[in-house]
Model the fold of this input.
Amino acid sequence: MLARLSCSRRRVSSRLSRLGARSYSSSYSWLESHLIDRSMCRDESLASNDLQVMEDVITCEEETLLANEASAQLRRRRYEVNHWDQVIINFKEMETIKWSSEAQQVLARVRALPIIPQDLEYFPAVHVIDLAEEGYIKPHVDSIKFSGQIVAGLNLLSPAVMRFQEENGESRIDLKLPRRSFYCMRGGVRYRYTHEILPGVQTFQGEAIQRTRRISIMIRDVFVPPATSQP
Done:
């Protein structure tokens, strides 16, 4: 009964999020969001929209739908101990466009969220990462070969803590990702900060966050080289 009541409240919250999807809210920004610990950040060059996060962007039922369809496509794959670039530990992954019509509608709504720039060209396939409970993602900056101006992801099945560390400085930002939340990084956070998914039990502003198996659905834009001026 408690789970049903919780899902009911989250459905209401998700509907409100969708109703507000037409206008930008500063509460999504790393400068305002209660999901972001910015106490260790001294980087004054970051823009307010360089890191944004939204809660409850889908319902409990939609989370189950996406997780089940992703799991079905990955069921014959084993969890890999190491990634080809040694960034991800204990994971499965795929790029796919194979979703049911219902799941496609959910993903289309996610792609239209206000924290995603609508003037970029996006890959039609999404990148799915199934991270085992004992798995983790090491600090890294995504290559422009695989993503352009943004890195954005939908967090399923488990809460997680994502850490951003300035590559050539001491600033740090911690992001709490509840289930069914969505984040988007760009600008200074995208290019000048590493990001990682921490393993095991983490503490976020005094709260213990137990991460279990996690599925993330990544939305990536196509890298467009800057135009060169003609002599």
In short: DSSP finds four helices and twelve strands in the chain. The chain has one domain: 36-220. Residues 1-6, 8-24 have pLDDT under 50 and may be disordered. Helices lie at 2-19, 60-74, 101-111, 187-192.
